[in-house]
Amino acid sequence: MIRRGIAFAAIGALALTAAACGEGSKGSGSGGTPKVGLITKTETNPFFVKMREGAQKQAAADGLQLMTAAGKFDGDNESQVTAIENMVAAGVKGILITPSDTKAIIPAIAKARAKDVLVIALDTPTDPQDGTDALFATDNFKAGELIGQYAKAKSAGTTPKIAMLDLAPGVSVGILRHNGFLKGFGAANVDAKASKAVTAPQVVCAADTAGDQAKGQSAMETCLQKAPDLNIVYTINEPAALGAYTALKAKGLEKKVLIVSVDGGCTGVKGVKDGQIAATSQQYPLKMASLGVDAVAKFAKDGTKATGYTDTGVTLITDKSVPGVEAKDTAFGLQNCWG
């Protein structure tokens, strides 16, 4: 992550920096280096660390000055609103954002777009999706489908009892992965357009984790109290998955319960290699950021605006593949992981 540069004290707890990727300090409005902003949900999540690396590298290649900001926690909409306002005031040509609250952020984005700032969502679409000019992201519904299909094939012959360790209510990326998993498993007839997370008879427990390892462990402990015979665990991401594994291991159940996840970070892929996680859907944050920055560079150069959705890819990673579900092994996963 790029943490050096100009600090904006007005944003309080939010970290906002401007990292020079070329000469000039006043932005394109005064003949200086054009600026691009990147706003992530948090500073420390390895996913966003890699996203910043991609943005920094592409900004340097495109001759842009990169500004970055992040909230204190996943869901910190107030900080993201402040970051947008500060970046617009600083004269950015475009803003890349992973929205924490996909609905609440819309008015702030609309104000930026009204001032001719190109706004692109990375990883997480806004609600509605056309709240930004464009979206560069994993197909999160497909990511969920892949691990759902895998879990279905891997658990054939058993009565499925599923625990769903989700993200948080109303967050689009969480809804898409959740619903995709149930669709892939064949437990629910749902598509990517659904605005709410659905449930199914096979689901014996559901709990939110905020994508946090400690909360994932706590959620798994709660689910084991409710349904001690559960045998499949869907997790929103790999930190939650590793937390679930810790809880299962404490009960001696780690070899009896199948855990699947989404992300493809290096720690998560190692978890797959070590047998803690059965399979994970790998996404590519560096690609999201680099494509986003390049789109802003084109907009700054000639006014060309990126539009619509660009799929940045997803790959199922497992060392125990099953027929009918395309996958790559952990050697591939470790070559392409992040964090």
Can you give a write-up of this model?
- Keywords: Signal.
- With 339 residues, the protein is α/β, with parallel strands linked by helices.
- The chain folds into two domains: 9-138 and 284-306, Rossmann fold (3-Layer(aba) Sandwich); 140-282 and 316-335, Rossmann fold (3-Layer(aba) Sandwich), CATH 3.40.50.2300.
- Helices cover 38% and strands 18% of the residues.
- The protein contains ten helices and 13 strands.
- The strands form two sheets. It has a seven-stranded mixed β-sheet with strand order 1-3-2-4-5-6-12, with helices on both faces.
- The longest helix is centred in the C-terminal third of the chain and has 18 residues, at 285-302.
- The relative contact order is 0.14.
- Residues 1-30 have low confidence and may be disordered.
**Derived structural class:** alpha/beta
Beta content: 15-25%
Uncertain stretches? 1-30
β-strand number: 13
List keywords for this structure.
single chain, 339 residues, alpha/beta, Rossmann fold, 2 domains, seven-stranded mixed beta sheet, six-stranded mixed beta sheet, 10 helices, 13 strands, 38% helix, 18% strand, disordered N terminus, signal, Peripla_BP_I, carbohydrate binding, SBP_2_dom, Sugar ABC transporter substrate-binding protein
